[in-house]
């Protein structure tokens, strides 16, 4: 009897161990991470105090009237005071108009860490970063925006100056802090000739560790797509809320699908899924996608730069299959779509779209895109040739001005682009549209602007363009868009906002040719109306819209940090 009960007891203990061991190990590992986090916090406490003290003293210096004021620094002071006025009112306004918080949290004075190792790159991702910093500063004037960067060669003053000239974004210097990483090389793709995805992701952990040993923020945001750093932060500092602004999923379901593609238009991995090598690659990608999903579920607030990105992140990070297509509530299962700010306002103010300006528009189809294979210029050339043929059949068109196709793009010197554009010219010749097609390489902005104001139709033929800033620019300039029926143009840009179409979408050569005809043949009043609708639609992508949506999400993080 005693033997039996002993056996039952042992059995019970063994079962309990088998069931509970993984959990035990899990919580033990969790504890170790927390311990490390605690140590890091302790070791960096004095730096944190120093950073805060310096920001406050810079603030004081900026405010105190200086004895030997030159007119220049006077002007500067004035500007800083203006800045304060603006930030005060806007801060209070945002606070009271937001559903979440009251006006008092404009007083929040924590540190927001932005993980952006390449903050001097000057691309679209950096515009997002600096615009986000500006919005954050205005909303919480006392908060400190700490940017983790590897750009050692630029100091803060130079960086802020560059931000001002490059993006026309003026930041309030005292509350911006640059923290310099020494380990950035671990996230550079070329460091990992094999297994780049995994290598870069694990490498980002080293860089994140570097970042935390510089300073532990109160809110941690990644704006470059290193999601692994956010999960790492959660393990080390469970109390620090994390946010991700995702430009592009590290791995996408399209990538997996493209392994099976035969047509060759789906990017560099098109059709690479054959053979043993292909099978290994597929398995590796699938496993990586699962790891990426696990990591992503640790992030508190998720923002995506487009519906395309959002759809992929939802698939990879969310555990529900719910396919809601709303704006998203900012969780991994339903990321908030926060479109990046674009230079819509400049186009709006320089280009007129009225019945009068319609007379200066010519029957020109404009395609602005780099001369690269994925932009699919051949499709545009073929469709244009077909459109001209069809059009020539109708004698009524004989005395109308002949349509023109203008291709504007940059060509990277000494790259395959140069052969590519040569082949495109050859194709235009073969299609007998050489006299009707213009290639413009590396046009200046004023030249582009002039084409945007006189052309009639804007074209984009890329399959699955993730967004298409140039399509937004077409719309802001009042062009009627004819774009590929996929990706960002389909989901976000060339959409009907309830008052009618803002352009045409096509997939095949026939459809593109038909859309060119339809766009150019619109009656004049409808043409102008469509241009104006397109322009209104582009207003969704302004800097103000970006700030509003960004703050709505970051407010949650700030609230959670208290
Ligand atoms: C905002 O401005 C008002 C009056 O202009 C002032 O009383 C208040 O202290 C300011 N608030 C902050 C946070 O600076
Ligand atoms: C989102 O980011 C990706 C990668 O940088 C870019 O290709 C895409 O155009 C961006 N989307 C928007 C809306 O800017
Ligand atoms: C192409 O351009 C040439 C020269 O401008 C013009 O004569 C010709 O009619 C155009 N072709 C078509 C099909 O419109």
TrEMBL record:
<protein>
    <recommendedName>
        <fullName>GDP-Man:Man(3)GlcNAc(2)-PP-Dol alpha-1,2-mannosyltransferase</fullName>
        <ecNumber>2.4.1.131</ecNumber>
    </recommendedName>
</protein>
<comment type="function">
    <text>GDP-Man:Man(3)GlcNAc(2)-PP-Dol alpha-1,2-mannosyltransferase that operates in the biosynthetic pathway of dolichol-linked oligosaccharides, the glycan precursors employed in protein asparagine (N)-glycosylation. The assembly of dolichol-linked oligosaccharides begins on the cytosolic side of the endoplasmic reticulum membrane and finishes in its lumen. The sequential addition of sugars to dolichol pyrophosphate produces dolichol-linked oligosaccharides containing fourteen sugars, including two GlcNAcs, nine mannoses and three glucoses.</text>
</comment>
<dbReference type="InterPro" id="IPR031814">
    <property type="entry name" value="ALG11_N"/>
</dbReference>
<keyword id="KW-0328">Glycosyltransferase</keyword>
<comment type="pathway">
    <text>Protein modification; protein glycosylation.</text>
</comment>
<feature type="region of interest" description="Disordered">
    <location>
        <begin position="61"/>
        <end position="105"/>
    </location>
</feature>
<feature type="domain" description="Glycosyl transferase family 1">
    <location>
        <begin position="358"/>
        <end position="535"/>
    </location>
</feature>
<keyword id="KW-0812">Transmembrane</keyword>
<feature type="compositionally biased region" description="Basic and acidic residues">
    <location>
        <begin position="61"/>
        <end position="71"/>
    </location>
</feature>
<keyword id="KW-0808">Transferase</keyword>
<dbReference type="Pfam" id="PF15924">
    <property type="entry name" value="ALG11_N"/>
</dbReference>
<dbReference type="GO" id="GO:0005789">
    <property type="term" value="C:endoplasmic reticulum membrane"/>
</dbReference>
<dbReference type="GO" id="GO:0006487">
    <property type="term" value="P:protein N-linked glycosylation"/>
</dbReference>
<keyword id="KW-1133">Transmembrane helix</keyword>
<dbReference type="GO" id="GO:0004377">
    <property type="term" value="F:GDP-Man:Man(3)GlcNAc(2)-PP-Dol alpha-1,2-mannosyltransferase activity"/>
</dbReference>
<keyword id="KW-0472">Membrane</keyword>
<dbReference type="InterPro" id="IPR001296">
    <property type="entry name" value="Glyco_trans_1"/>
</dbReference>
<feature type="transmembrane region" description="Helical">
    <location>
        <begin position="6"/>
        <end position="33"/>
    </location>
</feature>
<dbReference type="Pfam" id="PF00534">
    <property type="entry name" value="Glycos_transf_1"/>
</dbReference>
<comment type="similarity">
    <text>Belongs to the glycosyltransferase group 1 family. Glycosyltransferase 4 subfamily.</text>
</comment>
<feature type="domain" description="ALG11 mannosyltransferase N-terminal">
    <location>
        <begin position="111"/>
        <end position="317"/>
    </location>
</feature>
<keyword id="KW-0256">Endoplasmic reticulum</keyword>
<dbReference type="InterPro" id="IPR038013">
    <property type="entry name" value="ALG11"/>
</dbReference>
